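Module 6 notes. Inverse folding takes a fixed backbone as the condition and produces residue identities as the prediction. Think of it as a translation problem where the source language is geometry and the target language is the twenty amino acids. Below is one complete input and output pair. Work through it position by position during the lab.
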């Protein structure tokens, strides 16, 4: 390819990426998904050595995903992430039919039992966490929340009176209601008093309101400055919104929670390869052990399929079968 042709191809890919970005935002994909999808499109372009976008074929799609599996040896979950990104790219951006090629490259993800902490281990880890991180992790365990859902909670999402947490735009852009652990009420009331000071500080300083989802900011331009919409776990510092370049206060980043949890895990002396997501797994497992219905647990977790929730029955089943090893006899 000549230098002129190469520059032309790069220019066309830049236009295609911008088109993809606009479609992702129009369809209200999360910023995290937007970044992931655009990265996979760039990787495809690089793999194809910037072949002109209009010449990209179904065979290219299949070859790239095979390359990921065979040469780069990526995990099935990563391959399926790339698959989702590129199916979006072909269908919505290139407007090409990719259906005949999808099943040929779809990786079958291995289902592994999740790491679950005992009730004593959960208590030990929580006791090693400081203030805000304790509340975040306690809400994750107490309500079965994902870390991304917890850090995105707003003041209005907690219903102290009814004992409920409302999760808006969870995984799959679904809303759901889960249980609020009433044990946390005194600590959360103290926490709310502290963050109200941060809220008033921002209002006095003329800081832009917090980010609002979708078209709410256009429909209710002042809502982002209301107390009800303020983050339950705001970041200490202001930062730039990557979509609008507005300087405002965002919520605590999930990676900060993950680091704090890992540190607490070590201090508590828990040797299991647990992550902060293990708190959600532990919530489901402990409810099942307490005799709650699997359908109820499915609703609290926000699982689309009961099959996903059923994996916890395998963990509980091991503990209640009463099987005695022949060696012990």
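Target side of the pair, the amino acids:
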């Amino acid at each position: 390819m000549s230098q002129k042709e190469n520059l032309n191809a790069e220019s066309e890919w830049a236009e295609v990426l911008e088109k993809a970005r606009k479609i992702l935002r129009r369809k209200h994909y999360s910023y995290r998904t937007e970044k992931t999808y655009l990265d996979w499109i760039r990787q495809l372009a690089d793999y194809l050595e910037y072949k002109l976008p209009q010449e990209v074929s179904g065979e290219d799609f299949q070859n790239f995903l095979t390359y990921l599996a065979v040469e780069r040896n990526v995990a099935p979950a990563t391959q399926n992430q790339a698959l989702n990104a590129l199916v979006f790219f072909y269908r919505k951006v290139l407007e090409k039919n990719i259906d005949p090629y999808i099943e040929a490259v779809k990786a079958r993800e291995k289902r592994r039992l999740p790491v679950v902490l005992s009730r004593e281990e959960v208590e030990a880890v929580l006791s090693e966490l400081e203030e805000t991180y304790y509340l975040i992790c306690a809400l994750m365990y107490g309500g079965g929340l994902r870390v991304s859902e917890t850090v995105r909670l707003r003041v209005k999402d907690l219903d102290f009176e009814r004992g409920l947490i409302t999760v808006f735009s969870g995984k799959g852009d679904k809303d759901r209601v889960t249980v609020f652990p009433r044990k946390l009420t005194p600590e959360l009331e103290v926490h709310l008093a502290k963050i109200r000071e941060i809220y008033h500080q921002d209002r006095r300083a003329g800081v832009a309101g917090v980010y609002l989802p979708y078209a709410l900011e256009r429909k209710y331009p002042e809502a982002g400055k209301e107390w009800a919409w303020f983050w339950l776990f705001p970041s200490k510092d202001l930062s730039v919104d990557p979509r609008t370049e507005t300087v405002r206060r965002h919520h605590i980043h999930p990676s900060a929670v993950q680091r704090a949890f890992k540190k607490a895990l070590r201090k508590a002396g828990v040797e299991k390869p647990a992550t902060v997501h293990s708190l959600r797994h532990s919530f489901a497992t402990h409810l099942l052990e307490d005799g709650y219905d699997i359908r109820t647990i499915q609703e609290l977790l926000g699982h689309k399929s009961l099959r996903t929730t059923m994996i916890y029955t395998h963990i509980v089943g091991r503990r209640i079968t009463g099987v005695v090893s022949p060696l012990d006899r």
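Reference fact for the lab report: The chain has two domains: 3-105, 119-318.
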